[in-house]
Amino acid sequence: MEEGKNMRMLIYIDPGTGSMLFAAALGIASTVHFLCRKVWMQIKYRIPMTHSGEAEDVGTAENQGIIIFSEGKQYYSSFKGICDELEKRRIACEYWTMDDGDAILKEEYKYVRCIYIGSGNRAYARLNLMEAGVCLATTPGLDVYQWKRSSRVGEYVHIFHSIDEGLAYRMLGLDFYDTILLVGDFQERYIRMVERARGLAPKKMKVVGCPYMDELLTKKNAGIDMMADERKKKTVLLAPSWGEESIFHTLGEELLDALLDSSFDVIIRPHPQSLIVEKAMIERLQKKYSADKITWDLSKDNFVSLMKADILISDFSSVVFDFLFVFEKPVVYADAHIDFSVFDSAWIDEPVWKYQVMKEYGHFLQKEELPQLDRILQDIIERYSTDEKIKNFMRDTWQYQGEAAVKIVDYLTETGE
Amino acid sequence: MLYNIIIGPIEYILQVVFYTFYSITFNNVILSLMGLSLTVSFLTLPLYNRADEYQKLERDKQRAMEAGVKRIKKAFKGDERFWVLSAYYREQDYKSIYVFRSSLSILLQIPFFLAAYHFLSHMTSIPDSLFRTSDQWLTILGYHINVLPIIMTIINLMSGVVYSVGMRWKEKWQIFVLPLVFLVILYNSPAGLVIYWIFNNVFSLVKNLVVRYRKEQQTKEICLILSYMVGLHALWVMVETGCKSSDIIGQKQGGIPVFICVFLVYNLQIYLLWHKAKFHEMPQKPEMKNWTFREMLLKEGVLWIFVGCYIPLSVIAASPLEFLQTSVHEVGELLSCPLQLYGGMFFIWFNIIFLLMPQKYKGMFNRMLSVCISLCIYNFFLWDNKNGILLTNLRYETSIIYGQTKIMLSCVCFPVAIFGLALLLERFRRWERTLMGIVLTGICAVVFFQIYSIKNVMDSGEQRISSAINSNEEEDSKVLYFSQKGQNVLVIMLDRAIGAYVPYIMDEKPELIEAFDGFTYYPNAISMARCTNMGAPELFGGYEYTPEAINARANETLKDKHNEALQVLPVLFDEAGYQVILADLPYANYSWNSDMSIFDKYKRMKAYNLEKNYNAMNNAVLDDFLQQQAFVGYGLFKTSPYFLQYFIYENINQQMSDSFNKAFYASYQMLGNLENMTEIDAGDRGYFIEFNNNLTHEPCELQLPDYTYSLSERVDNSAYYIPTFYIVDGRTMKFKNMEQIMHYHVNMAAFLKLGDWFQFLKDKGVYDNTKIIIAADHGRDLAQFDDMLINEELDTEAFNCLLLYKDFNSHGWHISEDFMTNADVPALVADGVIEDAVNPFTGNPVSAFNVYEKRAMVTLSNNFAQDEGNVFDTSDAPWYRVKGNILRKENWVKVSD
After folding, report:
1. Predicted TM-score (pTM) of this structure
2. A1, A3, A5, A9: best to mutate for the B interface, most B CBs within 10 A
3. Separation of first and last alpha carbons in chain B
4. ipTM (interface pTM)
5. Residues B778, B781, B787, B792: is their CA dihedral positive or negative?
6. What pLDDT, in 10s, does the model give residues B671-703?
7. Which of A3, A13, A32, A142 should one mutate to test binding to chain B, selecting the residue with the greatest count of B CBs within 10 A?
8. DSSP string for B503-522
């Protein structure tokens, strides 16, 4: 009876208060749900509740200076040059990788301490307890997913491992970095647009170039002679992205049939993610398209295929810029109906930069053109030449060509000081 | 405990507010409810506004994030959605916990509602049917309709209409549906509660109208004027109540001069504080901001220890053993309620208010706390009123009196003190923290010392009590034996029973005349002392044990002489072959709990502690909440300005304290249980029964018309007219205050209980062969009879002890105007039973009327607690010699030093 009375009292209030309490109750319910979910996620992904804590051996900032973090060997090209430069300048630092097959681990550096930090949650646990003056990484989604900012890191610095406007990461990809080292000036405009859209404080930005592209260019220059003898027939490289909207799905077998019927040798290089999530489809296609003229490149490094190819067919992959800028060869792209809603680019009103550029400098392949694909590709190759316009564009987009590692190390050391 | 800490302080404040309104509106319940509702609404208004601000912030923030959240929710699913959403909130500087922040203030209102609800639904101190039943104002076709809940709903809906202007229907529906739901739920609630909610809703409606039509300024002015008027009226009533306290001793009331004084002083104070001191500008001063939260805690600590610990301990330390008579055996138990309640008030509520208040007021709040501490200490130490003896329920034994001159002086001094202390604290701002630290350390040191000494006394007292209780381990439920064939002699002492009441008791309950068949009433009887330690020995031992005689035997200890007095009659009757049965003889072995082991040496005698057993039973049943809460009220009372103390004591603490006390209930139960304790012996051996009962010593309001008391139902005499005076045979007895009324009630109850028992004895055939003497050790100076007020220091009522005598086979109701004293009791007892009775200890005849020539030496001393030494220290008051008619002033002769 008494409890009933109290209950009646609790809910009996005037309209204003009633409305407030109603809102408060709803808010509290959703907050409690949110907090429970957070705790569950922290348990599920074994993330420490706080970001600071006792750092493990690897994280002692004997190197209060620089730590480079790499997700794996695919980022070799991005970090190799930087590590070399640091070694050259005798700057003590650490290179943390989540991949025990990372080739940099095998480098015999004296000043760069290369450490395999394990993979998965173990690696994230260490990352989250990192202690450093500055941490350099290519990995987006800092403090969004499992990788949390450590309160013992002075500055998180991001570098790009490809060329795009900087909005091709999944949402909030760069938001929790302190500094973005840019490939070219043009990126700043886009990143600032997103910052404004989200009401964020402007991040520090500096143009340093792209170490990945530098490395690719170096490799290309070294590899031209090596490949010269092997080139007999024109080769087309088909390098799509993955998922429902990729050209494997949009153009599919019609494109492959057209390529099979063409005079070109064909290299098909599925996206690494396709090999995981679309494995059955890839295996079926592999079986069906196993003619001599078709090569399935499933290796991690795309360099050889890029070198061999005379023309690239892709959809939305950044490889088009590798091909265009480093190898200076023409590009054909297909409408891949990519869903941009998950990317940072969804926050701005302008069309995606990459599409604009490809429209300008590549050929948009439509389904109706497939019967004449051979002729079209021949024409493109014949007509293509790196004119002044594209050179200017390249210069503006990819700045400090060949100097990125130096520029980055300059920045890191300045920051350290 | 949690309730005491969190809700308790608010409920206490609400009680104070309600009872204040109840008094200043001259007991108008509806106006009091309105005052309470308005006060609660005003108190919670800042919280409400704060909640509104926070909610606006929250709403704006949510709105700013809405598009982003929508985008994220649309783009992601599962865990990723959670990750991205969490990160987005973080980068927007929004924590999900902020929902709590915006809800905090509004949630803080819940304790206010809970407290108000708990208080109003448990209100039994005001016997108004509004708190018991729904209104049922309309009756249509035989159906009762409660109108108030309907009015409440209409107002609530109107308020909703105003509040929801501009809102979408989605937001509106709950505002309109909820009142209808509440109408159903609250339809049958007590009318008082619904009235309270109605006022809350009216306030809400007015507030919404004000907000809507932006009339804040005018409303503020109107509110200020109204508050000023109500405040002034309240002050007037409070001060006047205090002034009236002196009316009881015949002084004139303050009236207009006091009012003018109060009016002028307070207007001057407001003027000074507001315009000259410019307190309202002080928050802007930079040094005002120079405070820390630690400093706040320090001050709260000082206040807490002082009011919650020091003041209660100062009461307990005065007489620790009295508190042992309750179920409490540890000092901590006595302190738990004030410590919890004041702890919650200072450490929780003060800090919550402090944290929620706008930054600019925090410095001022901190300053006010310092002034508040200083004022509490100032009031407690410098404005102490001598109020007499404090009982364990923290009510004074007698009505308290506040002098008009001092009241007026305090009216003037109080604002001066506020102003002066504020200036002093401001001047020595940098020493303030050190000063508070010293005060805290000092109070703590005194508190530790007090606890230590109280504990020592309590521990030794406990041993005495346990030995007293152990002395009747073999106790049988049938302890009072009456012989059917032999003679029985029954001596009953009723502590503090007032002789002058008897005609009124018999007039009101004429059936008692029959019940007391055979008794002679001696209205012209006195005791020679006004307290038990001096008045009881003569009752049991005769004229050799009057205060004067006891003091004459200066070589023996008071304790020995007291014990000897108690043993005179038992030994006489034991030697005469009577079976002696004794119970609860007062102050036996100078123990508060009657150490009856003094009779252990008389193997044939049976000695019991009957009341103590009932006390122990009560302790198991009752909690000590009321007594503990009384300490809270006592703290407020003693730290208030002098001119408000009487008002707080009489109009607030009185309402909040139950008139119940355990000692009363034990005595009441014992007297009501006499029949069950009685056994009839068919043999011819005589019995001598002598016991004491304290029912008449423990004033308590009882349930009319039968003067009963039940633990399960609170006394509610609202249905009975209680006159302010009672005339019998042309003599007026005043009923001007509860003290007087309650004394009469317990005396009446004792008569009724004894009457029932006598009827039982008659039924069992052992009444006529029983000689009965009912006497008191002293009376009480209650100023109820004008003819008893001899002079300013002497109210004969204090000495007019009850004396009733029934001889064997006596019948009828007789009144004897003979001058008697309670020292005549042994002679009356022995008369006709033991021939030439001689005091077994002194060898002097027990019948000693002639020795004293009917002259009594009366001490006015109130040294009731003396338990050491050889002679009574009566230096606090003069002695009087009296003989003949005690109502004649000339018969009282002051004995010069």
Report:
1. 0.59
2. A9
3. 56
4. 0.83
5. positive
6. 988 998 999 999 889 999 999 999 999 888 888
7. A13
8. HHHHHH-THHHHHTTTEEE-
